[in-house]
Design goal:
By secondary structure, the protein is an alpha/beta fold. The protein is built from 15 helices and 19 strands.
Length: 446
């Protein structure tokens, strides 16, 4: 959900001439930054080549006003039963893609914890039987604080789930209500207490900034309250107005930071109400920069643009995706990237279950994309530059058979020369000062 905001001013630098680019790389070869040609580096430890596994649970108590993911109100037991039956069938079909098991498991949604105790037990049982996650496997479940109880948490923990991600978003009840969230701030605190009591030692809290009517002070109080609960990990996301969502429709007549029209029509409840302003880009940047400093001072290191953790508590599942590793996606609307092919499942529980009942793969008719070498290289670079560690030059060369500089030489030279990118012995990293103008950089690698 984090939007990498940028200023057009960063695109105004004149591109280097080819001769200057060559001269730059000659100097880089002689530089103390490198002992050899950029693009070659010391071998790093061989990564776990088993795929990660993402499972989409497309149900929630009420869809949040900003959410664009496929999800449905969990009201019909027959629909949930059809989903679980279909998931069991798909797991059997896809287990051949992970004969040695999976490197990580992430169950998201929707809201997985909106399922009943029995439903959760069936869900994790299906995945355990088909993919055999071992005791060292990171196994995460997303949860809404308003859908938790101790019995559900115990079922998850006893099934091997060892990481819980709570969608807190804010500790302001009015802001939570404005987003259509079904929980209150007190339920976040209670959810953390219950999770710790059930034995969860790895806990994440999701927080959002740039919310309608949110001031810097309100954001600071939310972050401070989150830290006071001693989570192991924090994710902070800027609100994005996704097309087709109630929140986007609510603000379609105006723009962020601009004077609001006197009233708007809420597409869900229809009464006219005044519209609180959205923080503009500068205000959002101030919120983000403050959070980075505040969290760092309390031991939470930023290892990715929007993710912060205590040492050793980085989300291993997401790290593998950002590093370009394969992952399988199960459930309606889930996406897989496996051996250079991206596939998207049908966004309909009924169709998904119906296809699987017939022994067919539940993939969208136009949902299969064979990624070209250029697309794969570009994605690796764009995702890798989100990470504090950056892109491993030796891993890039090992995976693609080419040096980064041979493909992007002139672009890299320009950004290294201006300090936007940083080159070390075996990594290419984004200068942290340019996080909020990253899109202007990344577009040159597409």
């Amino acid at each position: 959900m984090l939007s990498w905001r940028y200023s057009r001013s960063t695109t105004r630098a004149d591109p280097m001439e080819k001769g200057k680019a060559r001269e730059f790389w000659q100097k880089m070869r002689m530089s103390s930054l490198r002992k050899d040609i950029p693009g070659l580096g010391p071998k790093r430890a061989e990564p776990d080549r088993r795929p990660g596994l993402y499972v989409h649970v497309p149900f929630c108590r009420r869809k949040c006003d900003y959410c664009a993911f496929y999800s449905l109100p969990a009201a019909e037991p027959d629909l949930i039963a059809a989903y679980l039956h279909g998931l069991a069938e798909e797991a059997e079909l896809r287990r051949q893609d992970a004969p040695e098991g999976v490197s990580s498991l992430f169950i998201g949604g929707g809201t997985p914890t909106v399922l009943s105790e029995e439903g959760l037990s069936k869900l994790v049982g299906i995945l355990t039987r088909s993919f055999r996650p071992d005791e060292n496997c990171e196994q995460s479940v997303e949860a809404n604080p308003g859908t938790l109880n101790l019995e559900k948490l115990r079922i998850l923990r006893q099934a091997g789930i060892n990481r819980l991600s709570l969608g807190a978003q804010s500790f302001s009840d009015p802001l939570l209500k404005s987003l259509g969230r079904v929980h209150r701030a007190e339920e976040i605190r209670e959810g953390v207490r219950l999770a710790r009591g059930a034995g969860f030692k790895n806990l994440n809290l999701d927080l959002m900034f740039g919310l309608p009517g949110q001031s810097l002070g309100l954001w600071q109080r939310t972050v401070a309250e989150a830290v006071a609960l001693a989570p192991d990990h924090l994710s902070i996301y800027a609100l994005t107005l996704e097309e087709g969502t109630p929140l986007a429709r609510r603000y379609s007549a105006g723009t962020a930071g601009a004077p609001s029209s006197p009233a708007y029509v809420d597409s869900t409840s229809l009464p006219l109400r005044s519209r609180p302003p959205l923080p503009d880009d500068d205000q959002q940047a101030e919120m983000y920069d403050w959070a980075v400093e505040y969290l760092a001072a309390r031991g939470y290191g930023r290892y990715e643009v929007s993710n912060f953790s205590l040492p050793g508590r980085e989300c291993r599942h997401n790290l593998a995706v950002w590093r370009g590793r394969d992952y399988l996606g199960l459930g309606p609307g889930a996406v897989s990237t496996w051996r250079g092919v991206r596939r998207r499942n049908l966004e309909s529980v009924e169709d998904y279950a119906g296809y699987l009942a017939q022994g067919r793969n539940p993939v969208e008719p136009a949902g299969v994309e064979v990624l070209s070498p250029r697309e794969r290289r570009s994605e690796r670079l764009i995702l890798g530059l989100r990470l504090r560690e950056g892109v491993s030059l030796s891993a890039f060369r090992g995976d693609f058979g080419v040096n980064l500089r041979d493909i992007y030489g002139e672009v890299l030279a320009r950004y290294l020369r201006t300090g936007v990118l940083i080159l070390t012995e075996d990594s290419l990293r984004l200068n942290p000062a340019y996080t909020f103008v990253a899109n202007a950089v990344l577009k040159d690698f597409v």
